[in-house]
Amino acid sequence: MDEAPPAAGSSQIFADNLKGFILAVASSAFIGASFIIKKKGLKRAGASGSRAGGGGYGYLREPLWWIGMVTMIIGEIANFVAYIFAPAVLVTPLGALSIIVSAVLAHFILKERLQRMGVLGCVLCIVGSTVIVLHAPEEKTPSSVEQIWDLATQPAFLLYTASAVAVSLVLMLHCAPRVGQTNILVYLGICSAIGSLTVMSIKAIGIAIKLTLDGINQAGYFQTWVFAMLAISCIVIQLNYLNKALDTFNTAVVSPVYYAMFTILTILASAIMFKDWSGQSASNIASEICGLITVISGTTVLHSTRDPDPPSSVFNDISEFRIYTLRFLPKYFGTSKEMVNWENSRMTTCCPENLLPWCAKTILFSQAKQQDYAEPLKNYNLMMDIGDCLEVFEYYLELLMFSSRSHFGKSSS
Asked: Is the pTM of this model over 0.85?
């Protein structure tokens, strides 16, 4: 008779983990599908008006885009509820399934080719997620928001919170103004550190809501509202810097890096606050870590094999193009010691209308075998290392964007 309560408790924990797993998978399906629906809506809106990438808002009148938004909201709600039932160690890694859903749907609906290595990435994500699910820790739900507050104010988690905030402030105030436009880890470091605190706050709110629905009202505790304010503040900061990262860097690079950093820090924060690994065997913990590494590897492989998103053919100013040169030119031309030969010596074939789209196309899409970078740039007959290339592109774009058409006419005379 004495063994019955533990068995019943274990059964309840398994049931809660199962609910969290189902909700997390459903959330990934909805969120992954929402990317495709919204992209279809954006394409349809762009065909009949100004594109979103060019600053237009025609997509707000496109029903398909709104369907995608509703789908995403449903997925986020399901993800929120999943954190109520299951530990973050289980729920957070399952977010990788949304990447699989979007990749597969993009292959069939948007005709974006999913390569063989991309399929391998999907398989790795599924295998890693399965390992994590099979070894998910048992989490005991606190009986009141005061207990959650006690967990959040324990020295270990306070140290983690202080460290996350301190690192974020250094990145925001010192690093972002200096290297934020060229180092992807700056913006994503802020998103990941603050995002881990967001998840902990949301989980606390979710538990408070669950207890309230069970008849134990938590609205009267000030801690509930503190967690709510923290969640809102963290979400605003997180989304702000995530948008900056997406606007500055290629999505195919942002997604796997952000997923890896966010997942690792969230699991670490959850393990400290809720002691997810307390009572687990070393083999189970090792299996969860291996599963996480497998998921991150699969995500990286999947995104590394994606075709790059088409760039905009219009840059607002020279600093915006400089960002593109700093990011993509080294990747295109190779290492700093490799040499590039730009032939001929005249720039008369260049004009403002065709050079800017060409520059974007060249830096992002040209393959070395095509040798098409030499055609428009006919004003240099040099052997240059990568530093020289950057200076040439910046100088050339300054001429393009800040000089009149007559300037080009004078150069040709």
From this structure: no
